[in-house]
């Protein structure tokens, strides 16, 4: 019986091993992009194991053979008992959808390389793209941020590196851009982190970016956060974290999308965005479009075609809790590999995304950046881009804050700032409202514009000039096809008997015709993409703004003041303009005159009275809001001061106006009043700047001490209480960083416990100090250690006990994590010690002497280390192999001899040893324990002391 059982097991093994090997071959074919061969292999495997029908279906999906894919999915759910029938039916529904021509293009060799490119981030106007690329030449190492500009022909320029302010020798990425392109959310291993994944913010000034600053403890934690995206107004952040915001050790590596809002100067508690969007699997790469309502994301939890698919959902109502059921972007966009990370300019028609490639001619590297034309039903709501620059009356470029609000309701909708060096601004506004746009800057009179997008229609336009090159290519390709057709007819009509030559010519001609047809198709595709980019319902409106300095005699027109006909009764739509006038008066010490003006229709007396009454109506409104009557007065001018001719309707309309004229300013009593007024003005203006809002929110949420932009917060420890001084309203608040406690913090950068703090003083014991060649330096001692974090470690030792002396180790260390994919470091430096040994030793002649030694060397050490943190306790276990390139000990250089024999110097050449141990820190206490084996001795070492 036993023999039969053993034979049965062996038979099953011999039958099963080829099956497993064949399955592995099928998987290899699929992974390498040989989908037809993979499909054939999976179908053969499915005869024995029907689960492989699913793999065959995915292979046919990759081939876009929808009928065969559906057939194999049907076989899968009918024959395999473990199939998720409901999910597969939804996949079949996707495959049965009508075919739709989707234009998808690889961005080409200027952007993509044989390395990895992903994380595309397109500016709102579509003119500049930032992206991540690994180990590109002329970079800083690791993964850098690069940017490319869109050229007039639609192609992208050679990329430029963003420079050393953003890029380091580690990995950095632009996660999100504000609508105006002047503020970015950045991911990187910068100084001042809570954990292994933190968000930072940076501002664009001219063509440069500021040093990235931590977004603060309200959003960042000691766990992992990534893939962030800003709302159009910059006050909502959508990002990705592990389920339950767990840390890496406790997480199952499935991720959810989270959301937080900037309210009252702080980020709210991040919460999962919606159960409609998040699943038990992973959702990643959220992107909220310029309309503020349409969200794209990637998921492998919702029914899809394989890997991660792209989905779209839309916000319901004005809140952020309700979303439509996510819709898969379809079989013509998603593939069986990972499709993820979409970014879309304000035009809403062209999307840029990352796609995994197979190396079978579908790309340049493992991950490439592609662009596609979105189907109309997958596009966001259209918006209008308002752009221009802000100048003063001398046409000098200035920075200003631009606000936009609903003209009819007065609801404040958002704001932006013009670039302080170029004066450029850009805002995106959805159709369907009337907007009031206000430009303001300290020291200038404000200006407003009313923009009516309720009635704006999208006009079809002709091909732009940038398509000229594509039209030329089309004509050239058509000409080549015509020439080849004539040559075909000649060859086919030939009576030559040299068949080999005829067939060779036909073959070459066929290749040329195929290439010409491919070139024509490519030109048509590029032209169509450019056409669709320009004809999307998307509009651009240029509005240059000129602000008038608030000097004595300066005048501006209040553009949006409306009265009932022939009356001084202010209409409701005038309130926003009047409130803006009040805000300027409240934030300054100006004295102004409100002047009323009319056209020449009616009598002089009537016009004078009406203009006076209307000016007084404006003055009374501002006084009722709280402005002193000594600072504002009314003057009616009637028809005496026209700005344009009264002979036309347009001229008469321009003459009917209300003006503000600066008369002077109120004298301040003492310097304090002036400084306080300046402070109020600066605070009022800076509060409407995204960079400043993020800085204040970060201070309120707490940032690690010593981080860039560290200011008024006193951050003590990660995952513990910190005190933050909030400068708003002069209030001080105490709060606790949100994170799981106890939570382990793992630092795989190869640092020891010194990475957690500055210096420490320790008592230590070395029972066998092989590093310095001393056979036995026992007893206690004091060690002073200072740390500069990741680059340098020095310590100064003084030994007591059976040896008295001291010395220094000057150690530099290099992180090898990126190179080895392990938390390794290489230590190197210089070691020097001087020790008087108290032990008496006898010479050959019987005389005693004190043993005097020196030790110096060049230590080389490879260490494997992690930093762990649980609550207030930090532990750094380590293992190291130590090898001294040069190290020796010598006795007192006096002749020690008996007869003609001389006692030799005691030289230790290059000792080497293994060492295992751990160092720990609890608040201000530090300790360590280690075991050393090799060198001049072995034993246990310990240390205990204070940490600073």
SSE map:
Layout: H1 2-31, H2 35-46, H3 52-62, H4 66-79, H5 85-96, E1 104-106, E2 117-122, E3 128-134, E4 143-149, E5 160-161, E6 172-177, E7 183-188, E8 199-205, E9 208-209, E10 213-214, E11 225-230, E12 236-242, E13 255-263, E14 266-267, E15 271-272, E16 283-288, E17 294-299, E18 309-314, E19 327-328, E20 339-343, E21 350-356, E22 367-373, E23 383-392, E24 401-406, E25 412-417, E26 424-430, E27 434-440, E28 444-445, E29 447-452, H6 468-493, H7 499-534, E30 539-542, E31 545-549, E32 555-557, H8 575-586, E33 590-597, H9 604-624, E34 632-636, H10 649-655, E35 657-665, H11 670-686, H12 690-701, E36 713-714, E37 721-726, E38 731-736, E39 760-766, E40 781-787, E41 792-799, E42 803-815, H13 817-820, E43 824-842, E44 848-865, E45 868-870, E46 873-890, E47 897-898, E48 901-902, E49 912-922, E50 925-934, E51 939-947
Parallel strand pairs: 23-30, 23-31, 33-34
Antiparallel strand pairs: 1-22, 2-3, 3-4, 4-5, 6-7, 7-8, 8-9, 8-10, 11-12, 12-13, 13-14, 13-15, 16-17, 17-18, 18-19, 20-21, 21-22, 23-26, 24-25, 24-27, 27-29, 28-31, 32-35, 33-35, 36-37, 37-38, 39-40, 39-51, 40-41, 41-42, 42-43, 43-44, 44-46, 45-46, 46-49, 47-48, 49-50, 50-51
């Amino acid at each position: 019986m036993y023999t039969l059982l053993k034979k049965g097991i062996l038979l099953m093994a011999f039958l099963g091993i080829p099956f497993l090997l064949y399955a592995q071959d099928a998987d290899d074919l699929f992974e390498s992009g040989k989908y037809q061969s993979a499909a054939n292999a999976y179908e053969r495997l499915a005869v024995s194991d029907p689960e492989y029908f699913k793999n065959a279906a995915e292979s046919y999906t990759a081939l876009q053979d929808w009928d065969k894919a559906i057939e194999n999915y049907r076989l899968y759910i009918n024959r395999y008992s473990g199939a998720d029938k409901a999910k597969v039916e939804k996949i079949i529904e996707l495959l049965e959808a009508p075919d739709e021509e989707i234009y998808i293009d690889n961005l080409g060799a200027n952007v993509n390389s044989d390395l990895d490119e992903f994380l595309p981030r397109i500016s709102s106007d579509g003119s500049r793209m930032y992206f991540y690329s690994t180990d590109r030449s002329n970079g800083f190492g690791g993964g850098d941020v690069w940017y490319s500009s869109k050229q007039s022909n639609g192609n992208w320029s050679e990329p430029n590196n963003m420079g050393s302010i953003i890029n380091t020798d580690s990995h950095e990425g632009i996660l999100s851009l504000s609508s105006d392109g002047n503020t970015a959310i950045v991911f990187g291993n910068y100084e001042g982190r809570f954990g292994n994944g933190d968000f930072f913010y940076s501002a664009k000034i001219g063509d440069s970016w500021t040093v990235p600053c931590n977004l603060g403890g309200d959003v960042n934690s000691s766990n992992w956060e990534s893939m962030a995206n800003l709302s159009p107004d910059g006050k909502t952040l959508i990002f990705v974290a592990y389920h339950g915001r767990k840390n890496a050790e406790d997480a199952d590596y499935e991720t959810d999308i989270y959301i937080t809002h900037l309210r009252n100067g702080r980020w709210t508690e991040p919460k999962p965005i919606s159960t409609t969007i998040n699943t038990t699997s992973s959702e990643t790469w959220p992107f909220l479009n310029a309309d503020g309502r349409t969200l794209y994301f990637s998921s492998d939890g919702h029914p899809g075609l394989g890997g991660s698919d792209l989905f779209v959902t839309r916000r319901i109502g004005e809140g952020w809790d309700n979303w439509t059921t996510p819709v898969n972007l379809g079989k013509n966009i998603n593939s069986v590999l990972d499709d993820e990370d979409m970014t879309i300019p304000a035009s809403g028609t062209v999307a840029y995304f990352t796609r995994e490639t197979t190396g079978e001619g579908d790309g340049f590297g493992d991950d490439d950046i592609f662009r596609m034309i979105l189907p109309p039903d997958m596009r966001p709501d259209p918006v209008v881009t308002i752009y221009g620059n802000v100048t003063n009356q001398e046409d000098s470029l200035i920075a200003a804050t631009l606000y936009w609000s609903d003209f009819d309701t007065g609801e404040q909708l958002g704001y932006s700032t013009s670039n302080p060096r170029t004066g450029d601004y850009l805002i995106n506004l959805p159709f369907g409202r009337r907007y009031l746009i206000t430009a303001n800057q300290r020291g200038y009179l404000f200006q407003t514009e009313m923009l009516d997008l309720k009635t704006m229609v999208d006009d079809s336009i002709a091909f732009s000039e940038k398509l000229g090159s594509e039209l030329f290519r089309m004509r050239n390709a058509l000409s080549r096809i015509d020439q080849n057709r004539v040559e075909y007819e000649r060859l086919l009509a030939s009576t030559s008997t040299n068949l080999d030559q005829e067939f060779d010519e036909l073959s070459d001609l066929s290749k040329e015709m195929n290439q010409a047809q491919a070139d024509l198709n490519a030109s048509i595709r590029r032209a169509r993409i450019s056409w669709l980019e320009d004809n999307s319902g998307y509009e651009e409106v240029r509005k240059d703004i000129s602000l008038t300095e608030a000097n004595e005699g300066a005048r501006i027109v209040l553009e949006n003041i409306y009265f009932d006909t022939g009356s001084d009764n202010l209409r409701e739509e005038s309130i926003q303009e009047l409130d803006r006038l009040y805000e300027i008066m409240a934030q300054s010490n100006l004295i102004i005159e409100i002047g009323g003006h009319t056209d020449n229709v009616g009598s002089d007396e009537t016009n004078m009275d009406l203009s006076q009454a209307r000016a007084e109506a404006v003055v009374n409104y501002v006084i009722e809001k709280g402005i002193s009557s000594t600072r504002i007065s009314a003057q009616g001018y009637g028809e005496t001061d026209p700005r344009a001719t009264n002979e036309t309707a347009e001229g008469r309309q321009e003459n009917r106006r209300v003006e503000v004229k600066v008369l002077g300013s109120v004298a301040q009593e003492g310097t304090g009043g002036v400084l306080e007024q300046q402070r109020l003005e600066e605070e009022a203006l800076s509060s409407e700047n995204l960079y400043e809002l993020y800085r204040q929110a970060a201070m309120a949420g707490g940032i690690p001490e010593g981080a860039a932009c560290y200011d008024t917060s006193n951050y003590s420890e990660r995952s513990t209480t910190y005190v933050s001084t909030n400068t708003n309203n002069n209030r001080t608040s105490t709060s606790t960083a949100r994170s799981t406690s106890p939570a382990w913090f793992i630092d795989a950068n190869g640092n020891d416990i010194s990475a957690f703090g500055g210096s420490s003083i320790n008592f230590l014991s070395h029972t066998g100090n092989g590093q310095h060649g001393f056979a036995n330096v026992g007893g206690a001692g004091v060690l002073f250690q200072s740390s500069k974090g990741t680059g340098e470690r020095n310590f100064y030792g003084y030994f007591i006990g059976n040896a008295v002396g001291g010395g220094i180790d000057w150690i530099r260390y290099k992180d090898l994590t990126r190179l080895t994919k392990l938390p390794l470091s290489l230590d190197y430096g210089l070691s020097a010690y001087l020790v008087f040994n108290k032990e008496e030793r006898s010479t050959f002649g019987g005389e005693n002497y004190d043993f005097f030694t020196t030790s110096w060397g060049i230590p080389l050490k490879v260490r494997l280390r992690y930093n762990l943190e649980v609550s207030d306790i930090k532990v750094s276990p380590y293992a190291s192999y130590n090898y001294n390139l040069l190290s020796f000990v010598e006795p007192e250089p006096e002749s020690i001899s008996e007869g003609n024999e001389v006692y030799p110097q005691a030289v230790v050449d290059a000792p080497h040893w293994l060492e295992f141990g751990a160092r720990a820190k609890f608040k201000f206490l530090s300790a360590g324990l280690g075991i050393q084996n090799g060198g001049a001795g072995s034993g246990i070492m310990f240390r205990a002391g204070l940490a600073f």
